Amino acid sequence: MKHLRKFNESGQMIDTNNLNDILQDIIELGYKCHVESHWWSDRENSISLIMYGKDDRRFIDIQEVLPELERLISYLSTEDYSMDDTSEKRIQTFRDVPSEKTKQNIMISISSMSKIDLVWNKELNKYEMEGSLSLYFREKI
Length: 141
Hints:
Blueprint: H1 2-9, H2 20-28, E1 32-38, E2 46-52, E3 59-61, H3 62-78, E4 81-83, H4 85-95, E5 105-111, E6 114-121, E7 126-130, E8 133-139
Antiparallel strand pairs: 1-2, 2-8, 3-7, 4-8, 5-6, 6-7
């Protein structure tokens, strides 16, 4: 029993079901989300989120999901989680997306292994992100 108590008193993992309320708004818009949590006994815990485009399309409407992503980031910061550098750059790129067409497509390099492709949607008259969006959060220790 002594070992069980010590284990239960060690680092607590956030209940990722609490993220459901925020992500539900994104899911109701037609996006698919995958959340994974990682608990470690000897280092910080982490959460990863992958968002996929609506239906069979592979595009994410940035203006449509950004307010909900900001709510998610805010909530996780109150739970002592922060984004890694690459995720922070992705969100900053979302914040800075031009509202008018500047050229056909825009490719923004986030890191040596990550980029964001923005495609102009003629019907919606705005840029959308092609592909999926991955965000990674780490617990502050």
